[in-house]
Design brief:
Number of helices: 13
Largest sheet: 7 strands, mixed
Strand content: 15-25%
Number of domains: 3
Shape: elongated
Mean pLDDT: 89
Helix content: 25-40%
Distance between the termini: 43 Å
């Protein structure tokens, strides 16, 4: 690493072991490889995490190392995910990414020889990503690789790569990079994950058809209010709601069926969803998608609100 830093900074650099490591608390000396790096006659503590440490812990532990060593503390990584790097720069926390980047604002240095992957501006979550996140909740993902996530969703690795990029762009702290590989990482409960994600999740209904005459939909899953009622003791509307994919809606030519205006009671409602998550015996869409497909007006009803709480408590737990 000396050669890389000297090449980038054009100054003499020396790195030596930190002699006072035994004076540090056990959790700090056990979590970091610690060195003294001498830059422009200034001694700094170089702290390299031995294993993955989340951003919140990095912040706190760096401040503790800085206070206990009485030196500026520079974090050192083999690699780091884009979200963490952006936050470190925003907060002026110095770091070195080996062979890639040096950021030392206290010396006025921000250098890189590595082409960064530019994240496009994202305003809302994609429906594939929403499916990924709901599957993560149901399957209680803690740490899963990009490849494993692609297999779980039966999609390409490129599709999950775009999902991970999107999560980073939205600053949803679920993606970590270890070496060349990226992982979905969540260390807290499924309920905490649901609560964090809830503001980002969208109504999955692409189109709703309020039919004048009912179809025989017994082989298809219940959706919306009918699905919520199937998971609870809540009374359904006076008509059934079913959920199908866009492909199925096209093959059934749903668009050609006679519908009634809003405000009138339909014989049956068909919701066309942006995604499909197999769940249970298939008689209803998955419970979280059922909740998300309800209208804002529906959710104001205290009975429906209580049913939603019941479904979340039953299905979002560890």
């Amino acid at each position: 690493m000396n050669d890389y830093i000297e090449k980038m900074l054009h100054i003499k650099v020396t790195i030596s072991d930190y002699a006072d490591i035994d004076k540090l608390p056990l959790y700090l000396k056990g979590s970091y490889r610690l060195y003294i790096i001498k830059l422009m006659e200034k001694d700094c503590l170089l702290a390299e995490p031995k294993e993955f440490i989340n951003l919140s812990a990095l912040r706190k532990q760096r401040e503790q190392l800085k206070k206990l060593s009485h030196m500026e503390c520079v974090l050192c990584f083999d690699d780091v995910n884009t979200y963490t790097k952006q936050k470190l720069i925003e907060e002026a926390i110095p770091f070195i990414i080996k062979e890639k980047q040096i950021y030392m604002p206290f010396l006025g240095m921000a250098l890189t020889n590595h082409d960064e992957r530019l994240l496009q501006e994202i305003k809302e979550i994609s429906y594939l990503n929403q499916k990924l996140l709901l599957v993560a909740i149901y399957q209680k993902w803690k740490k899963i690789s990009l490849t494993e996530a692609a297999k779980a969703l039966c999609v390409s690795k490129m599709s999950v790569t775009r999902c991970f990029d999107e999560l980073e762009a939205l600053k949803i702290p679920l993606v970590s990079k270890l070496g060349r590989n990226r992982y979905f990482v969540w260390e807290q409960s499924s309920a905490a994950l649901w609560n964090m994600l809830r503001p980002f999740l969208r109504n999955p209904v692409a189109k709703e058809y309020r039919l004048d005459k009912p179809l025989d939909m017994r082989d298809f899953p219940l959706g919306g209010m009918s699905a919520l009622s199937s998971y609870t003791l809540l009374n359904d509307n006076g008509y059934r709601t079913y959920a199908i994919t866009k492909e199925l809606a096209k093959s059934l030519r749903i668009v050609d069926l006679p519908c009634i205006p809003n405000g009138e009671v339909p014989s049956e409602t068909i919701q066309v969803l942006h995604y499909d998550i197999p769940f249970g015996d298939g008689t209803a869409v998955d419970p979280l998608t059922a909740i998300l497909s309800l209208s804002d007006e529906d959710k104001k009803d205290p009975r429906i609100e209580a049913a939603i709480d019941e479904v979340v408590e039953e299905n979002v737990n560890d």
